[in-house]
Amino acid sequence: MFDTHTNLDVVYVEKDIFLTQICKGLKPKTIHYGYHQSLIYGLKMSLILCIYEGSLFALGFCDDKKNKQEALEDLQKQFHFLDFQYDDNSINAFVKKHTINQKPKTVKMMLVGTKYQHSVWKGLIHTIAGETMTYSELTQRLGKGPQYTHSVSTVGVAKNPISLLVPCHRIVSKNGGINNYRWGIDIKSALIQKEIQLYCKQQKMS
């Protein structure tokens, strides 16, 4: 289904504005979610997807340390202001609409957060497959001083709602170690290794 080579059509929505629109009844409070088995870089993985007004709103993994209920509760906690409604039909329709012959088309995404979070998520989107960096390096790439490294980590990277497509798995520790992944370090390690393999293969072919 999706991978980090998927074309993205991203709409960035400020959280305060989004909440105001919901409170005024200008936006629906219901978000639809479901589960999907997908091959990512040839790896079979179970995903939880959340769709809001036809756009991908959240994506997480249910393998490793997160079962389906834990994954759902994790996203419900982050987006406590929305009512989560199980709807496999909507999820399957979204996946079908955005894939042709199992290959991903352009995916519509809605990223709800603060301006600061948006800047971090944009920085993650602009990384390339096969590349890893530390929180400090990401902070520097965003044009911010070292005093912002902690908030880039905890407020930005850790709160990324659309895993994989906003590739926070590419952030590693100072010594290059793989740790601190919301959906489990085994998944993070597998994604990084596969991306490095693909990058090396592309470099040999170029």
Q: Can you characterise this structure?
A:
The protein starts with 7 loop residues before the first strand and ends with a helix. Helix 5 (135-141) crosses helix 6. It has seven helices and ten strands. The protein is an alpha/beta fold and 206 residues long. The strands form four sheets. The chain has a four-stranded mixed sheet with strand order 4-3-2-5, with helices on both faces. Strands 1-8 form a two-stranded parallel sheet. The protein has a two-stranded antiparallel ribbon with strand order 6-7.
Poorly predicted runs are none
Order of helices and strands: EHEEEHEHEEEHEHHEH
Shape: globular
Compute the number of helices.
7
Largest sheet: 4 strands, mixed
Helix content: 25-40%
Beta fraction of the residues? 25-35%
Give the quaternary arrangement of the chains.
Answer: single chain
Mean pLDDT: 90
- Give the number of DSSP strands: 10
Distance between the termini: 26 Å
Order of strands in the sheet with the most strands? 4-3-2-5
Using only C-alpha atoms, the radius of gyration works out to 17 Å
Secondary-structure-derived class: alpha/beta
Summarize the structure.
The chain is α/β, with parallel strands linked by helices and 206 residues long.
Strand and helix layout:
Blueprint: E1 8-14, H1 15-23, E2 30-40, E3 43-52, E4 55-61, H2 68-78, E5 83-86, H3 88-97, E6 99-100, E7 103-104, E8 107-113, H4 115-125, E9 133-134, H5 135-141, H6 149-156, E10 171-172, H7 185-205
Helix pairs in contact: 5-6
